[in-house]
Amino acid sequence: MSSRLLTPAPPATPLRRLGTAGVFTITFAVTVVVAAVHLTQGTSSIGALDLLGLALGGENQEAVRVLVASRLPRLLAAVAVGVALGAAGALLQSVARNPMASPDTLAVSSGAYLAVVAAAAFGLTLPLPISGGLAFLGGLAAAALVLALSAGGRTSTTRLILAGSATALALSSLTNLLMILFEEQTTGLFAWGAGSLTHTDFGAVSQLGPVIALVLGLAMLIGPRLDILGLGDDAATVLGLDVRSLRLQTTLLAVMASAAAVTVAGPIGFVGLCAPVIVRLLPSSALVHRHRVLLPLSALVGVLIMLCADVALRATLGGQAGVEVPPGVVTTVFGAVVMVWLARRYRDAGPTRQPPTVRTTAARSRPGFWIILTACTALLAGAVVLGMLGGDAWLLTGDLANWLQGRTGRALTYVLDQRYPRVLAAVLTGAALAVAGTAVQAVCRNPLAEPGVLGVTAGAGVGAIGLLTLVPLAGIWSMSAAAGAGALVAFALVYGLSWRGGLSSDRLVLIGVAVQSASTAITVLIIVKSDPWDTAKALTWLSGSTYGREPVQLIPIVLALLVVVPLVAWLRRDLDLLALDEDSPRILGVPLEPVRLAALGGAVLLTATAVSAIGVVGFVGLVAPHAARALVGGHHARVLPVAALLGALLVSLADTLGRTVIAPAQVPAGLVTALVGTPYFVWLLWRSRSRAA
Description:
Largest sheet: none
Radius of gyration: 26 Å
Distance between the termini: 38 Å
Number of strands: 0
CATH superfamily of the largest domain: ABC transporter involved in vitamin B12 uptake, BtuC
Strand content: under 5%
Oligomer: single chain
CATH topology of the largest domain: ABC transporter involved in vitamin B12 uptake, BtuC
């Protein structure tokens, strides 16, 4: 007889004795109470006593008008979105058999949001059902790509999150690009992009509510088959289940619910992640493992999360906050906390734990290395010249030569004086992010990591844009200090939360993505609270633009490079050992934690100064080190200089392309690097996909 059978059963606490009906009753009662509190909040003076009098038969016309024109539409929108996202999250987690699957981590919301913004950008005024259909197509395409790249999300949580983050970043870059190019047509969509419940009528809920109800009903019908799917693909097939067809049906239902939620209120973060996770924490006596209980209960908990977030937001910041600040900010921060908890609880055994997931070339001979280094230097020099010549007005190399000799006229001198700080900013930022990415990948032993994925870039953005909002005329040193403080706080959070008997590569990435999401939500909160219509300021920092750079703004990043590059070069042999495994550095006497902290601290400093120089630029820290290893092998003595040159080359070309392709309008360099880097990232995941299958 096993010891498990001999172990006495735990005492039946009241919570454990609570059955399915009891859980539903208590959850519904709490939701009703929170909904009642929700109705009492708003910008008008109509309070709880006025609404109570109305319920008892009073005839306060002002209370009726406020209730019908504002508060009830907002409440019903929260209910519809909560039901849709809660059910969608439960369905996606069942399909992927992964507790971190949700409309956000699978980029469904980002794809749906892009479709809605694209329709607005091109001046299409569509009926709500057709707009919802476009959102459905966009979300479906995004979900299909993420699930394909992550092998369905079943083998590796890290792979699922990385694929979803990369896809979401690419889609967000396209969305931001459309909002920049079509600023008038997309006015107000930036704040709406974080989720908004502001409604003045019942039109959206009345048209999309039946769709959400239909999705929930169909999901309940296939619930027993989803229970069987939870046993595993092989067992489900033996029991006569068409696994592929069921996965397709479930994904379509989840995307349809997510698209309806986006159409009603915009992308509201992490409700679909949190609701099913909270439900699964309930005692097994409630039968929450059965989908006919899990799905409606997740929908109800989704409503409770939405209402609590909105109530907390308006109780903390005042009734006007309900109009100005998207409640999606609150749900995203709460969801990031849940994601951190999941990352610390679940150990990922996926292939991304085995370095490296993607092969690099063998080390080249010394002459081969010098040939590549020389070629990269020549390409960078050519990119710098191209950047000086390109723009809304193309110049000649003779003009550039005359400018260097001080022999140009006033007009040409002015143009080139404006261009050279931008070119230098792009070159220095690219080099800094590439060196930072090289250090992060070595320490994490994960070739898919980079400062942006670890939340450092978004943390620096919070610091910089927070200071820019509070002190619009802040100097460059103050800006660098604020960005550095934000990056340092984000780094401390990620590093500290990832430490659990050692530093796990997967935990570091997952917690980094959570901190990145929370930091981005806080940035949106700062922007929309200070000036919700100033989309240009938001996109400048969130997209990485060299526009209007001045030479003095480059001093911090130059100093950071002068300090960190020699430090990382000095640690090059230790980084080689760190990139191998956990034991080799200890055996050979490498002080593991001091080296890790020194390398990551240098990466934080470089990232912070890069953000203070031109804003948030993504994927450079991923692409440049990876391409360098593919060219010269894995030794950091060779990877570092080649990665720095390739990073500078990438950002320089992105900046030039952004300034010339639609001149006189401009595309921020960060959007171009994201659009270039994302396909490369997708290729890396796809190339290593066979190991995850």
